[in-house]
Structures are given as structure tokens and as C-alpha cells.
Design goal:
Length: about 190
């Protein structure tokens, strides 16, 4: 079984690499995030704020991600104090990849729905009436992350690196954020 097959089994939906390479572009006048562009927060504080606003169960802007991902993130962001002391995420590369799984799952969920919407009369009418919608499309390539396939393959490799032989299959599919959080807990003790 190759990495792509494993990845799509782990995902809430599947990704078809044969789908057209549409693009998704936000207009230049789209509002900017207060978390990122507002108060002067460091990157770990921004990550915590993003989790609280979009990923925490019951948050006002809760995104659609799997239970596994949400559970792993909840363990990682147990409290702001615990999160800020989580030494592995002082590393910029670790922090940079923190929300990759969320992005992949949301992208995967919206691709097929958006493809269907583009075929409707409503979309055609909107596209003909709006200059900004003339170029609206959606792509599987996210510049900050690389392709969805590469993110999924990276996630599979990371999971396989940390898999124990006695581990239950369901646990083996879990992303390793919880494991990283527990490593930082043992460092603090």
C-alpha cells in the first residue's frame, strides 16, 4: 500500500489527484486576521489563539476536522500555560507544520462540494456578473504547505516513525501531536 492510499484512508474524505488543478485566490481587499495582524503576539501565542478560535470544540468559528485531529490538538493546547511551555514547538519548523492536518482535511472536504457548485446555474450567473468571480477556482496546491499529497505523505511517515508494534490500529492512525505534547511534559518534570 503506498502512502497516498494510507493517507486517504486516514482522511475524512479522499483526495483525487486527477481532479483539475483549479486555483483559489483571495482578493487583495479581503480582511486580514486580527490574530495574525492585530496585537503583537509571538507565533506560539498566535497558534494558541487560532486553536481557541477555530479548532477548540464548541468555539464560535469551529472548523470541520476529524475527532482524532481535534482530540490531538486539544491535548496539545490543554491550557495556554501548558502550550507556552511546550518546548518542541519553540522550534519554528514544528510550529510551521502545526495546522497542516487541519488544512488538508478542510481542503479535502471542500474540493468536491466546490466542484459541484461550479457546475450550477447559480455559480455561472454569479461568475458572469462579478469581475472577482471570473477567476475563482480552487487548487489542491497550497503555497504555504506544498501539495496535499506531500502533506499527507509527510503525516503518514511521521505516524509510521512513532508507531509501536503493540499499538492498536486506530491509535496508529492518530497524528503525533499528543505524543509531542507528552514529550514536553516529561521534560518539565
Amino acid at each position: 500500500m503506498d502512502a497516498m492510499q494510507i493517507s486517504t484512508q486516514r482522511s475524512m474524505t479522499t483526495y483525487d489527484p486527477n481532479e483539475s488543478d483549479d486555483q483559489f485566490c483571495l482578493p487583495a481587499n479581503a480582511p486580514q486576521s486580527d490574530i495574525v495582524f492585530g496585537k503583537k503576539l509571538n507565533f506560539k501565542q498566535m497558534a494558541y489563539a487560532i486553536h481557541e478560535k477555530y479548532i477548540r470544540e464548541g468555539s464560535d468559528w469551529e472548523i470541520n476536522v476529524s475527532y482524532r485531529v481535534r482530540r490531538s490538538m486539544a491535548a496539545l493546547f490543554e491550557s495556554e500555560d501548558v502550550w507556552m511551555k511546550n518546548a518542541p514547538f519553540d522550534d519554528a519548523a514544528m510550529l510551521y507544520r502545526l495546522f497542516n492536518r487541519c488544512v488538508v482535511e478542510m481542503t479535502s472536504l471542500i474540493r468536491s462540494a466546490f466542484s459541484r457548485f461550479k457546475q450550477t446555474d447559480s455559480f455561472m450567473i454569479l461568475q458572469n456578473k462579478s469581475k472577482s468571480l471570473k477567476s475563482v477556482s480552487f487548487e489542491a496546491h497550497i503555497p504555504a504547505l506544498g501539495s496535499i499529497e506531500s502533506v499527507m505523505e509527510e503525516d503518514v511517515k511521521e505516524t509510521e516513525m512513532h508507531r509501536d508494534e503493540d499499538e492498536a490500529p486506530d491509535e496508529a492512525l492518530d497524528i503525533n501531536l499528543t505524543a509531542m505534547a507528552s514529550k514536553s511534559d516529561s521534560v518539565d518534570e
